[in-house]
């Protein structure tokens, strides 16, 4: 069994594999502009974040009903369980679905049908994090937060994703303030393609508790020092960085330097159906490409639970951490 870990950076829509995409398309009478899964896989050669996002939003068209979201989440949970995931904090992108005429209820209730049975069926505890699309307006984000109000008992926090450059965190100041007032936890993608200043702004203006990606902090020694001092977790996604060309090859990934600097790094899969691997695959890949020691891998697993939003269940966190310490590589 792989090392026990929490997954903290996972877009549920990014777990849609080609075969189920075609099955859902047939089930829902949705036409996909690809002849078959082979042709679809050909489209998985990305230049950058935007070229990935184009396909990511296109394929979502096959998700129509509660059952679709339930099936999607169940398929992810089964794969994650097989790769040692014990706790998952799952992103979803409601604006992408509301724009297609679906309701917030369809998305959240559908996902919840799978998540409510996740512990029993897959041995994975779960939380949901609702992301706002930063290339949409702040007003749209605020409306989305409003639409989520009936479902807040199922949503632990908010995040910020989609095209980063040109959409700085400050654009979402008010919606993050409103979410904080509702007791929601706050994270944001920052420093994936955007500059280190976006990371600082996410911390200062949005009050985020974790930074998703955060890779480009390495360009600012002062920022690294701050992130280390304040123990701000970073949810890194190494295979995603290679596929979206944020790093040239996995061997060039700054993860070892980030760990050496004392940053609280975690390893996650982002959009595993698109980037070539789930959480355990990301652990295996960094282990072999970067020659990480077993103690470094244990540190990454430990960090994932330390960085989890498990404050309501510290007993569970302690149990997971004990599993990490007892694990034999
Ligand atoms: N970055 C930004 N937005 C996203 C991503 C990502 O890797 N995946 C899905 N939405
Ligand atoms: Zn992401």
From TrEMBL:
The record marks 213 as: Important for catalytic activity. The active site is at 192 (proton donor). CDD domains: ADA. Pfam families: A_deaminase. Residues 4-317 form the Adenosine deaminase domain. GO terms for molecular function: adenine deaminase activity; zinc ion binding. Its cofactor is Zn(2+). Keywords: Hydrolase, Metal-binding, Nucleotide metabolism, Zinc. HAMAP family: Adenine_deaminase. This is Adenine deaminase. It comes from Streptomyces cupreus.
